[in-house]
């Protein structure tokens, strides 16, 4: 671990000042500290934001505002979230372990970095870790890598579960800017595709601090979070799907699907949602949805299986969520 | 009566069953349990040693070549840095189990990615680790590193003497039923919870090292040889070991590096392997490619048996994963071919990991046996029962006690096994196919020379001391029980001290031999003490009844303290394996039965029920033995479904060197494990009539799971682990 300066901020202004000077915010530290120990991340300074008043889950009209520092455990256990946004509670509980969820925060979880094996090995070229050095995952062992939206510079995936549910729920990220303003970014637009700048995971600018995630009015319908993984717990998704679907008179009235494990960001394809709406569920419809989702999907060798796995998992989820489950 | 025995013939006396205390075999708690659970048990790295410097190993980032230069200046001025050690005595590899001499040195000659090259020593761990990452090393890289495990374009040699008997090809071609299949397994890592760690202290004459090791009597010699000291001047302390699984059988590079640094710097030095280094520079289980050929007559009796394996190791290593170890004795077949080929690869040292040989050999063999049962159309249990040979099929020697048939029947009954074999895809629950499978368990019985000292104190308490280790297996518990039984004492009146190389040399923990070997040494010491007590009481040892601190002879009862009259009696028991292993084929046996669910969409396989019935001679402690069996079955789940140490084919490094991406089973992967202990005494196994149990629970377990997957969904996979993608690829439309 490289020596670093540690400061604690007591309010948002203080935190913003320090982050503007290049300090990295730290809350639960469940990802950042590991990365610092391995010197994948080598910040000169940290700003501990745990004392900044960014906790609490509070209603705001029809919406529900989750403070940036709300722990994953608290969020998943919240009665309103369990009742009105069960897909979110389920997604959170599908990730990590009790111990990690007790420390990990809402904002930190959004900002967690890829688990690409080569990103983690500082001896290997990696454009995300060291821009311009190359991508070792291409041509290497890439079982957990992206099949959608990857670039020649990076085929890493976003590893989280919570953000996949937030995408399906069309939540919004509330951000305090360096200038003291607030801006809002839909979660669906918060994470980036790698393009030619994979070092940037998301759209946060230097000096910006996430203050909250805002859930829209409860969407109703049936909520499913399905995570396919190599073992039953404490493994990242090979493929995951968050689905929020409302039926009306035998037809799909509304549908919002998001996908984990497939891309550099939680994947949302509005064409898939649109295709489903107004239709009567059928295997043919589900196949069409999979065709649309996976149009242009590309494997890189050891992750080729993700394409059929996404197709089959989508079918399972759609059968379940449209009431057509066995 | 003496305190020593060389086991050349069966010991039919069965003395333990003649004892009166009634403590042997009881499911007693571990005396060391509360200390471990509360964190007061101190592991190697946890000793508070004054003025202790911290070292971190620097490892190679090429797979083959030369270290041309180590630029010490690149880190010398970093905060806290004390020294960069790149001494010619440093070892480049861990020692194999039982080596008793230094492993390969010459760290500047790189033979695998991750090989230790230097040690950076600093005031704090963080400073040392930071500097270790900045240390500049100049290499000259060779371009002929052999790192592709699946390439046949590497040097391959035949290991040992193949068994070739009769004509297997002909037997296969003429058989009523034949199976010819190839199974593969990937590399495994021992993945102990406690990483390898050492604190070395040098006082100018004696090197004292707290280290996490399995077999101290060999480790002392290995370390002494490596650093150039007399073994008498080296003391190792390993009272608690947080798991070894074979990877701590021999010394590993961190202990040697810490010792050299301590001697050079004149202060204590602690070195703990980083988790990545546990994967990258200690020990892997080789990947295997196993060709199985089974020929059966019309009654399902094996007439031909072939098991040939390709494994790998570094150049110069003599260890080759003994894949066919149980195939040697388990099943009949007069036409036999057993053979192991060894490929030389520039990948981290291959060595003993969790039941070397049988763990991977049995899971493949039992898959092939299931395929044979399907082909014949008989109950796979019945196929096993029809193939229990009268005598060892190659050596023509008798078996010692063997409870295979009893295990098969007891396990089948407990599990509720339905003998009439259904065809696959018979049960569906929602998205899940449900199936059942079974497999035989077998593991060769090993013994090793062992000594233990037992002292009976005037107050009627006793102490046992040996350099034997308890790696989580329950050694403290069972050695105390043996002494308590033999001396007629409450088990709480027996103090067991282990893991100090100044104590008499025990067997060490490896090859499941710890309890039968060191336990026999304790038994022999106690027998000698009993003889001396008998002499004081004017009777033969056999006439003496010891119970609850009293001695009874011909109806006369005397308190032990009155017999001892202020004296203490001390004896060292000395056990040697002798020629018994040439006269009998001795092994532990068992049977696995499991129910597995396979997701029809995603190919995820989940074990829902798992029963194991095991016969391994006398049970010394029903609780710790059951735990050992459970541990093996858990590893079996990992071997079947998740575990795979992956190497990059281009660079030769471990791709997944941590516990996030190297998937050992987690709690949710493990259902209730049902263990049946089959009562047995084996007079040819040890004077205790006990065999080893540590490794038995994994030997075949993964095969049962694979067979259940086939029964569930009709997919027969032969390349372990059976990850969701592999199963899904073979599944039909959900």
Automatic annotation (TrEMBL), chain A:
The keyword Flavoprotein applies. One of its GO terms (molecular function) is FAD binding. Keywords: FAD, Flavoprotein. InterPro entries: CO_DH_flav_C, CO_DH_flav_C_dom_sf, Diverse_Substr_Oxidored, FAD-bd_PCMH, FAD-bd_PCMH-like_sf, FAD-bd_PCMH_sub1, FAD-bd_PCMH_sub2, Mopterin_DH_FAD-bd. The keyword Hydrolase does not apply. Pfam families: CO_deh_flav_C (PF03450), FAD_binding_5 (PF00941). Residues 1-220 form the FAD-binding PCMH-type domain. Transmembrane segments: none annotated. PANTHER family: ALDEHYDE OXIDOREDUCTASE FAD-BINDING SUBUNIT PAOB (PTHR42659:SF5), XANTHINE DEHYDROGENASE SUBUNIT C-RELATED (PTHR42659). This is Periplasmic aromatic aldehyde oxidoreductase, FAD binding subunit YagS. It comes from Pacificimonas flava.
From TrEMBL, chain B:
One of its GO terms (molecular function) is oxidoreductase activity. Residues 38-143 form the Aldehyde oxidase/xanthine dehydrogenase a/b hammerhead domain. It comes from the Bacteria. Pfam families: Ald_Xan_dh_C, MoCoBD_1, MoCoBD_2. Transmembrane segments: none annotated. This is Periplasmic aromatic aldehyde oxidoreductase, molybdenum binding subunit YagR. It comes from Pacificimonas flava. The lineage of its organism: Bacteria, Pseudomonadati, Pseudomonadota, Alphaproteobacteria, Sphingomonadales.
């Amino acid at each position: 671990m490289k020596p670093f300066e540690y400061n604690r901020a007591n309010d948002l202004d203080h935190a913003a000042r320090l982050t503007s000077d290049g300090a990295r915010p730290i809350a639960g530290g469940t990802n950042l500290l590991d990365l610092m120990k391995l010197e994948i991340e080598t910040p000169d300074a940290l700003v501990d934001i745990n004392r900044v008043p960014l906790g609490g889950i509070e209603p705001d009209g029809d919406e529900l505002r989750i403070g940036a520092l709300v722990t994953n455990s608290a969020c998943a256990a919240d009665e309103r979230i369990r009742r009105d946004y069960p897909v979110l509670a389920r997604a959170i509980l599908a990730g990590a372990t009790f111990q990690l969820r007790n420390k990990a925060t809402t904002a930190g979880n959004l900002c967690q970095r890829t688990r690409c094996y080569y990103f983690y090995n500082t001896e290997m070229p990696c454009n995300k870790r060291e821009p311009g050095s190359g991508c070792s995952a291409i041509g290497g062992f890439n079982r957990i890598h992206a099949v959608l939206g990857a670039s020649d510079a990076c085929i890493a995936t976003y590893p989280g579960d919570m953000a996949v549910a937030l995408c399906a729920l069309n939540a919004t990220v509330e951000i305090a800017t360096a200038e003291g303003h607030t801006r809002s970014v839909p979660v669906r637009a918060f994470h980036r595709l790698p393009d030619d700048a994979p070092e940037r995971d998301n759209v946060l600018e230097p000096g910006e601090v996430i203050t909250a995630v805002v859930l829209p009015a409860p969407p109703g319908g049936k909520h499913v979070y399905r995570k396919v993984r190599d073992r039953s717990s404490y493994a990242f998704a090979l493929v995951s799907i968050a689905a929020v679907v409302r039926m009306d008179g035998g037809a799909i009235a509304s549908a919002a699907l998001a996908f984990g494990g497939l891309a550099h960001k939680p994947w949302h394809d509005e064409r898939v949602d649109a295709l489903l709406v107004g239709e009567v569920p059928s295997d043919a419809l589900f196949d069409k949805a999979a065709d649309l989702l996976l149009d242009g999907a590309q494997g890189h060798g050891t992750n080729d299986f993700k394409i059929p796995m996404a197709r089959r998992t989508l079918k399972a989820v759609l059968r379940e969520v449209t009431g057509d489950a066995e | 009566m003496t305190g020593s025995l060389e086991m050349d013939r069966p010991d039919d006396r069965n003395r333990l069953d003649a004892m009166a205390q009634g403590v042997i075999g009881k499911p007693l708690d571990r005396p060391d349990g509360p200390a471990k659970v509360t964190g007061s048990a101190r592991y190697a790295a946890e000793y508070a040693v004054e003025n202790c410097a911290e070292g971190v190993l620097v490892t190679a980032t090429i797979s083959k070549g030369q270290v041309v230069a180590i630029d010490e200046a690149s880190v010398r001025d970093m905060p806290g840095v004390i020294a960069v050690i790149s001494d010619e005595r440093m070892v480049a590899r861990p020692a194999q189990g039982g080596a008793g001499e230094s492993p390969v040195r010459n760290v500047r000659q790189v033979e695998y990615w991750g090989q230790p090259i230097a040690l950076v020593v600093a005031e704090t761990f963080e400073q040392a680790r930071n500097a270790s990452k900045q240390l500049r090393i100049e290499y000259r890289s060779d371009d002929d590193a052999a790192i592709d495990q699946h390439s046949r374009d590497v040097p391959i040699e035949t290991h040992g003497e193949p068994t070739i008997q009769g004509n297997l090809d002909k037997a296969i071609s003429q058989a009523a039923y034949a199976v010819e299949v190839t199974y593969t397994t990937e590399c495994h890592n021992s993945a102990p919870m406690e990483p390898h760690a050492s604190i070395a202290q040098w006082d100018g004459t004696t090197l004292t090292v707290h280290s996490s090791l399995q077999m101290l009597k060999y480790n002392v010699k290995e370390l002494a040889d490596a650093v150039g000291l007399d073994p008498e001047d080296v003391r190792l302390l390993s009272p608690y070991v947080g798991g070894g699984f074979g990877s701590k059988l021999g010394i590993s590079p961190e202990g040697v590096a810490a010792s050299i640094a301590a001697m050079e710097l004149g202060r204590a030095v602690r070195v703990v392997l980083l988790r990545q280094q546990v994967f990258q520079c200690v020990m892997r289980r080789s990947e295997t490619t196993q060709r199985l050929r089974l020929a059966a007559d019309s009654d399902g009796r094996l007439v031909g048996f072939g098991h040939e394996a390709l494994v790998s190791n570094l150049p110069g290593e003599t260890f080759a994963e003994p894949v066919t170890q149980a195939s040697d004795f388990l099943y009949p077949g007069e036409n036999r071919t057993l053979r192991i080929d060894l490929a030389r690869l520039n990948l981290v040292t291959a060595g003993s990991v969790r039941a070397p040989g049988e763990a991977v050999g049995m899971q493949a063999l039992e898959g092939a046996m299931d395929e044979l049962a399907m082909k014949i159309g008989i109950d796979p249990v019945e196929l096993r029962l029809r193939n229990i040979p009268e005598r060892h099929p190659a050596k023509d020697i008798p078996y010692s006690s063997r409870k295979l048939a009893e295990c098969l029947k007891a396990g089948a009954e407990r599990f509720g096994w339905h003998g009439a074999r259904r065809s696959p895809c018979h049960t569906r629950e929602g998205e899940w196919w449900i199936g059942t499978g079974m497999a035989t368990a077998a593991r060769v019985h090993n013994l090793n020379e062992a000594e233990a000292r037992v002292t009976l104190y005037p107050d009627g308490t006793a102490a046992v001391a040996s350099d034997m280790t308890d790696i989580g297996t329950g050694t403290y518990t069972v050695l105390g029980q043996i002494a308590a039984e033999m001396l007629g004492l409450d088990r709480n009146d027996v103090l067991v001290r282990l893991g100090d190389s100044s104590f008499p040399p025990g067997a060490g923990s490896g090859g499941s031999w710890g309890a039968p070997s060191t336990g026999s040494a304790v038994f022999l010491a106690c027998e000698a003490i009993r003889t001396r007590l008998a002499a004081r009481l004017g009777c033969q040892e056999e006439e003496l009844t010891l119970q609850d601190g009293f001695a009874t002879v011909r109806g006369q009862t005397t308190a032990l303290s009155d017999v001892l009259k202020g004296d203490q009696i001390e004896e060292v028991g000395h056990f040697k394996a002798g020629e018994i292993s040439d006269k009998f084929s001795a092994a532990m046996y068992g049977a696995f039965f499991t129910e597995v669910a396979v997701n029809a969409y995603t190919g995820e396989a989940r074990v829902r029920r798992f029963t194991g019935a095991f016969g391994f001679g006398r049970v010394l402690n029903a609780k710790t033995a059951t735990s050992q069996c459970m541990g093996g079955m858990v590893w079996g789940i990992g071997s079947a479904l998740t575990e795979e140490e992956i190497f990059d084919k281009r660079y030769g490094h471990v791709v997944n060197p941590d516990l996030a991406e190297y998937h050992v089973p987690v709690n949710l992967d493990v259902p209730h494990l049902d263990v049946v202990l089959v009562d047995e005494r084996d007079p040819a196994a040890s004077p205790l009539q006990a065999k080893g149990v540590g490794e038995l629970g994994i030997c075949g377990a993964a095969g049962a799971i694979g067979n259940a997957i086939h029964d569930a969904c009709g997919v027969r996979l032969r390349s372990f682990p059976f990850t969701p993608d592999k199963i899904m690829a073979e599944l039909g439309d959900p």
